[in-house]
Design a protein that fits this description.
about 400 residues; Aspartate Aminotransferase, domain 1; Aspartate Aminotransferase, domain 2; 2 domains; 7-stranded mixed β-sheet; 17 strands; binds pyridoxal-5'-phosphate
């Protein structure tokens, strides 16, 4: 392990196998996984849908170069366009890359149609990725001083505060970029009224609305895209995480009117490669079916009820979220301790995530079974009892 560049602290556990909602470590211990690669494995670990799509496509065509067409790329872009009503799609490999693409496209549109407007307004505590520009776009505390100098052209408004957006919009503003459920900030859903006002305001002021659905998209919140839950349509949208079901795949979608890159303005070696696109198509076809999404909503209600029971039992602040992106809010900064206690539980561990010192985030596989959800809630209850006693 000494050869790993330090980027984070990890427990010593080494995972060797995953199936559905379960991960097995080298010592043979099983863990019920409610992290799922950070809301990535929409169909759980190593689902047959992905294994088959990968094997089929790997034996046929892995990469024809982004300079040529391939069938999986065309089919996935067509499917995403039909699902979202955003007619133009660019495939890439990570959420940060898709978001960078969205900012570039907005700036290109601003240079053509808005007299050089280029500034993008993000939100306090927002998270859009770890490239330098996306660190500037994010509102995570401390990120503006981590790798100076940071790219310029990003302003901030306050989440759920339409007045702050109104004040931040100026002559140079080209876009507002938002997560409708702030994931890294601790699963904070936007107020429906704020979202409607934001859509109206951006239209009225000729400013693009970029919705970052990297964490919320492809069924995570019970609808194909969370903006559908809010009843709005963005101008640009980004997807990653769940779209690949665990493989590196992301997408930038735009309304036809904003299809304004010139050839050569945007690209990348792996953009639209058939191997990842074939997986994405298989995942999207599986998840974005009415019955599957209805199942996500039913499982989300079960999880919500179970978390509410834990809130009552342990006198916690509350639970929140949309669909299967949920959080439990504790009264003190015990989230890391609860996550560790759950992971170390015997004979079975439970994997959770703590995006904030007092917040535990749950993002299970979208096809987790009712029994697995009940077992996860029981294990979470045990960890809470152990830490809060
Ligand atoms: C809302 C949101 N946007 C962007 C990103 C960055 O995605 P990636 O890590 O694939 O670059 C994340 C990752 O957690 C995210 O949650």
């Amino acid at each position: 392990m000494n050869s790993l560049l330090t980027i984070t602290t990890r427990p010593d556990t080494v995972f060797v196998e995953g199936r559905g909602s379960w991960l097995t470590d080298e010592a043979g211990k099983r863990h019920l996984d409610l992290v799922q690669g950070w809301a990535v494995n929409s169909l759980g670990h190593s689902p047959d849908v992905i294994a088959q799509a990968l094997a089929r496509q790997a034996g046929r065509l892995v990469n024809a170069s982004p300079a040529f067409h391939n069938r999986p790329m065309i089919a996935l872009c067509d499917r995403l366009a039909a699902l979202s009503g955003l007619e133009r799609v660019f495939l890439c490999s990570s959420g940060a890359e898709a978001n960078e693409g969205a900012v570039k496209l907005a700036r290109r549109w601003g240079s053509r149609h808005r007299g050089g407007a280029h500034e993008v307004i993000g939100f306090d505590d927002g998270f859009h990725g770890r490239t330098l520009a996306m660190m500037s776009a994010s509102g995570k505390r401390g990120w503006d001083t981590l790798y100076p100098p940071m790219p310029a052209g990003f302003a901030k408004a306050r989440f759920n505060d339409i007045g702050s957006v109104e004040r931040a919009i100026g002559a140079h503003t080209v876009a507002v970029m938002i997560e409708l459920v702030q994931g890294e900030a601790g699963v904070r859903p936007a107020d429906p009224g704020f979202v409607r006002e934001l859509r109206a305001l951006t239209r009225e002021r000729g400013v693009l609305l970029i919705v970052d659905e990297v964490q919320t998209g492809i069924g995570r919140c019970g609808t194909a895209f969370v903006h559908q839950h809010y009843g709005i349509e963005p101008d640009l949208m980004t997807l990653a995480k769940g779209i690949g079901g665990g493989v590196p795949l992301a997408a930038l979608l735009a309304k036809d009117a904003f299809d304004c890159f010139e050839p050569g303005d945007q690209g990348g070696t792996y953009c639209g490669n058939p191997l990842m696109a074939a997986v994405g198509l298989a995942v999207v076809n599986e998840v974005c079916r009415d019955e599957f999404l209805a199942g996500v909503q039913q499982r989300a209600r079960r999880l919500e009820r179970g978390l509410q029971a834990l809130v009552r039992e342990h006198g916690l602040v509350g639970e929140r979220g949309l669909g299967l992106l949920r959080a439990l809010v504790l009264r003190g900064d015990h989230a890391d301790a609860v996550v560790a206690a759950a992971r170390e539980g015997a004979p079975v561990g439970l994997l959770l995530n703590a995006p904030r010192p007092s917040v535990i985030r749950l993002m299970p596989a979208l096809n987790i079974t009712d029994d697995e959800l009940d077992e996860a809630l029981a294990l979470l209850g045990q960890a809470l009892r152990a830490v809060l006693a």
